Amino acid sequence: MKIxxxxxxGLRAVIKKNFYEFLEIYNPDILxxxxxxxxxxxxxxxxLPFAYKKFSCAEKAGYSGTAILSKIAPLNLYEVQxxxxxxxxxxxCAEFGNFTLFSxxxxxxxxxxxxxxxxxxxxxxxxxxxxxxxxxxxxIIVCGDLNVAHTPIDLARPAQNTMSAxxxxxxxxxxxxxxxEVPLCDFWRMRNPDVKDKYTWWSFRGxxxxxxxxxxxxxxxxxxxxxxxxxxxxxxxxVKGSDHxxxxxxxxxxxxxxxxxxxxxx
Length: 266
Fold this sequence. Notes:
The protein is an alpha+beta fold. The chain contains 6 helices and 14 strands. The protein has one domain: Deoxyribonuclease I, Chain A (4-Layer Sandwich).
């Protein structure tokens, strides 16, 4: 089974570029999207080769939004709205027999860091608590644009970006807490501990992508008990169409009713 996550920077925009060609070449069983950036009624009109679809959309037009598209029948497919947070369509969930999958688009702290306090003290904390509770039910896979380069090896120019959104001390500490407290494993980095110059986002400015001046801010985070069930993970940096590239995992997890472990009852 192949699961791909991609921040498409506007689904309608990428469809006019290479989206259907991408689907034909990589043929994902499950596709998780971020920044779909359109009303649900518009997205539902788009022809997509997936039997099961869920779009989570923002109240603000042309902003944010996530989706999960699946050829495999989930037990449940729904939007998650964290309590006391703006309706921005940032979490879509698909529950399968052996795991629960989340497509997530984490708020950007913005160039002047005006949203950093919200990100650090509200969003990160509430997301971490939510995922911790979900991981007690069954193993989880979290994928998407988490808007943070966790370590200096995850961006091309760490020294110049210590006060930039996505690489502040606060955001990086928030990522560490999520990995430790949920707990979760950054699967690509676990498989590629010393690999440099491998990124998932490049600014549109200054030819950053052609020069590979990028950031790795798109992830697959998995419950530790799933590690042996993930066969491979790849950053598909050859795929254009967005300022982000897709990330792919291949897994031998079966979509059965039988959990990999007993559910916690507390």
